[in-house]
Design a protein that fits this description.
The structure holds 2 protein chains of 2 kinds. By secondary structure, chain A is an all-alpha fold. Chain A has 14 helices and no strands. Chain A has a domain of 206 residues: MetI-like (MetI-like fold). Chain B is an alpha/beta fold. Chain B folds into 2 domains: 161 residues, D-Maltodextrin-Binding Protein, domain 2, CATH 3.40.190; 202 residues, D-Maltodextrin-Binding Protein, domain 2 (3-Layer(aba) Sandwich). In chain B, strands 1, 2, 3, 6, 11, 12 and 13 form a 7-stranded mixed β-sheet that branches. The chains are: A mainly alpha, B alpha/beta.
């Protein structure tokens, strides 16, 4: 009897090994395989369509590191975009969440309004904002002209020094509502008793935020920051929609740079760029997680 | 026999799968081996056989979809066993992804290519079935289909004939006292001054749209460049953008600054087309391919074309710039080659080509087309003038083209020509290495 039971247990234990197989197979096929393939391509000069190619060793990576201003420009633009978007989107998302955390009719309506841009396609958003930024008949300059602030009119995306910040503004408008929802979920999970206790201890509004809200909303902040970072690195369609293909160098970010390289039929070089891109996202996300952990400790 | 797997076997299985996947991933790109030869030339187009099956027609002209749909209906009437489905991608996407889609799937039994880099790649990838020796070629103007040939073989048929030079509002030009196009640079600047004096924006230029900002560069270099293939020579390293002739061009761009609409480096093509269509601008610095869309925006005035002649009249070699593009061809891998050939033949018929030309506002390279569209008739004289094949499309590397064109945008934005040229040359040198 007992040997039958232990045999059944053994079989069950063996069977458990097969439960992760579907997920593992998908992971291997859709992630590991393409990454390995990218590594292989990155060591060649393959053009994307010929049977001919040559192994070039690490030359693609050396070129990336030392002899490609367009790639360095894209890295710079992307870092500016990421820092701006992460700071602005996180702050705005948290402010909106703090404002609208209580569920009332008005706050429900406002949450929907702020969330609305998120459901739009990025191409539609790009087209709308292209009109907003148009220096001649665009919305922003028209409004500035109408209220007599002509001197504040700008060329927006046409100014290479500031174009990336206008791109960041569009990205923040597009996704701040989504981040607000994540923060609201985080805020609603904080027990009210903690605020009551803090209040009894004489904590003011800022102290309650600093010592109760901020540490306890940290998991939501980590999600928002990580998600926003990845989003900023992949703002591909928004850039192409705003600037065309290939984009204006002032708006060229890593994802669009890789796309242009693919379009130029330099698959080997584009694969090397993609691997650096992946490593950069991993590095930035890691640094951010540590920074958030330290800030909320 | 115990058929169940133990933990060790499971690990072995996963390990084997992983190694297999790794080896498959490292098998090498392109389906060939390192250093494999290029393979045989593609076989010639099959022009006979039963015309049946559905032909996929890949192109980028969404604005021509309805006109093509009418032609396809007529084609299906003529060949009841055959049909055509349009597979349309936006032009920027088409430029980037068409080769992969046409080469890797059943899309594009009949397809098109942009002149220059895309056509070269498609020939190299052997997706064009050679047309040399077919009767199709006799239906086209021989002097205009060169961009569809390579190494003495005709692979594609450039269908559209466009003029990549500023579109003019002739009412505005008349009011400014100019009934004919200026013959030299001083005359061109005078025209712009006179347009400005009459309250017009002299030139509407989409400096914020990378696809169209560079169109103006075509006529700006047509007479400045030391040779007709100057841009190809920049790419090959024989010429530099820091050479005098290109610096002169950039300095002339700087001279044009006050004549563009305000803050032109941020303007989109749509906004500038609107500005021109509303009658507030004298010139639209894109090309004849925008006539139909400008008319659709409500333009009431007649059109002409005016190219900036950047030299003295005596030194000018060309009056304008043209381009032949939308290079039609048949896919070597198609299973419906006779039907694909029949569709190409159908489009090459002067009557059907005329329906396309007049319906879409495009001149064509097909022999004997009768233009009834008023705008096409207005610019028809340009078909026989001394024009240069648009140099912009000599660039085969997108990054080099962007660097050169961006130098012109930077100059209009206020950068010194020499500095803009040096920055562009640095990128060119890197891309060539």
């Amino acid at each position: 009897m007992s040997s039958t039971r232990s045999g059944r247990r053994r079989r069950t234990a063996r069977a458990l090994w097969f439960f992760p197989v579907p997920a593992l197979a998908l992971y291997l096929f859709f992630f590991v395989y393409p990454v390995l393939q990218a590594v292989q391509y990155s060591l060649t000069d393959w053009d994307g369509y010929s049977a001919d190619y040559a192994d070039v060793g690490l030359r693609n990576f050396t070129r990336l590191a030392t002899g490609d201003d367009t790639f360095a420009n894209a890295v710079g633009n992307n870092l500016k975009l990421t820092v701006t978007v992460v700071l602005a989107q996180t702050a705005l998302g948290l402010l909106l969440a703090l404002w609208l955390v209580r569920t009332t009719r008005a706050s429900t309506l406002l949450r929907a309004v702020f969330f609305l841009p998120t459901v739009l396609s990025s191409v539609s958003v790009a087209f709308v904002w292209r009109f907003v930024y148009d220096p001649d008949g665009g919305l922003l300059n028209s409004v500035l002209r109408a209220v007599g602030l002509d001197s504040l009119q700008s060329v927006y995306l046409g100014n290479p020094d500031t174009a990336v910040f206008w791109l960041a503004l569009t990205q923040v408008w597009f996704h701040a509502g989504q981040m607000m929802v994540v923060f609201i979920a985080g805020l609603q999970a904080i027990p009210k008793e903690l605020y009551e206790a803090a209040e009894l201890d004489g904590a003011g509004r800022f102290a309650r935020f600093r010592y109760v809200t901020w540490p306890l909303v940290a998991p939501a902040t980590a999600i928002v920051v990580a998600y926003t970072t990845v989003q900023s690195f992949k703002a591909f369609d928004l850039v192409l929609g705003l600037s065309g293909n290939p984009p204006n160098p002032a708006l060229d970010i890593l994802s669009t740079r890789i796309y242009t390289t693919f379009s130029n039929n330099q698959f080997g070089y584009a694969a090397a760029q993609s691997l650096v891109f992946m490593a950069l996202i991993a590095l930035v996300t890691r640094v951010q997680r540590r920074a958030i952990g330290r800030a909320t400790r | 026999m115990n058929r169940s797997l133990d933990r060790r076997s499971a690990f072995r299985l996963f390990g084997a799968a992983g190694v297999g996947l790794g080896l498959a991933a490292c098998a090498g790109p392109g389906g060939g081996s390192s250093g494999a030869s290029g393979g045989a030339s593609p076989s010639a187009l099959a022009t006979s056989g039963p015309v049946k099956g559905t032909v996929s027609f890949a192109h980028w002209r969404a604005e021509d979809k309805a006109v093509f749909a009418d032609l396809i209906k007529a084609f299906a009437k003529k060949y009841p066993d055959a049909g055509v489905e349009q597979d349309i991608a936006p032009s920027a996407d088409y430029q980037s992804t068409a080769l992969r889609r046409i080469q890797g799937s059943k899309t594009g039994d009949v397809f098109t290519a942009f002149r220059g880099a895309q056509f070269e790649q498609m020939v190299k990838a052997r997706v064009y079935a050679p047309l040399t020796g077919t009767e199709l070629l006799d239906r086209y103007q021989k002097n205009l289909i060169g961009p569809g040939a390579q190494g003495g073989t005709q692979y594609g048929l450039p269908y559209q004939l466009v003029f990549n030079m500023p579109l003019a509002n002739t009412d505005a030009l008349d009011k400014a006292g100019h009934t004919s196009a200026p013959k030299d640079w001083d005359g061109f600047l005078q025209l712009l001054d006179d347009l400005a004096a009459k309250g017009y924006t002299p030139i509407a230029w989409p400096g914020g749209d990378s696809a169209n900002a560079g169109q103006l560069l075509n006529p700006m270099v047509m007479n400045n460049a030391p040779t007709d293939d100057a841009f190809a020579r920049i790419e090959s390293g024989d010429y530099k953008v820091t050479d005098d002739w290109f610096l002169t061009t950039l300095e002339q761009y700087a001279q044009l600054r006050p004549y563009f609409q305000e803050r032109a480096t941020g303007s989109s093509t749509d906004a500038t087309a609107q500005l021109f269509a509303s009658g507030r601008a004298g010139l639209l610095a894109t090309g004849s391919f925008q006539m139909a869309s400008v008319r659709a925006l409500g333009a009431k005035f007649p059109f002409d074309l005016v190219a900036p002649v950047t030299t003295t009249a005596a030194k000018a070699k060309y009056e304008g710039v043209f381009n032949t593009t939308f290079i039609l061809g048949v896919n070597t891998a198609t299973e419906v080659q006779p039907a694909a050939h029949a569709f190409l033949e159908f489009l090459s018929d002067p009557e059907h080509a005329g329906a396309y030309a007049n319906g879409t506002g495009q001149h064509l390279t097909v022999e004997g087309v009768e233009y009834t569209n008023a705008d096409l008739k207005a610019v028809e004289p340009w078909l026989t003038r001394k024009t240069l094949l648009a140099p912009r499309f000599q660039f085969l590397d997108l990054d080099i083209r962007t660097a050169v064109e961006n130098a012109t945008v930077a100059v209009v934005g206020g950068k010194k020509p020499a500095q803009a040229a040096e920055e562009a040359q640095r990128v060119i040198d890197q891309k060539r290495s």
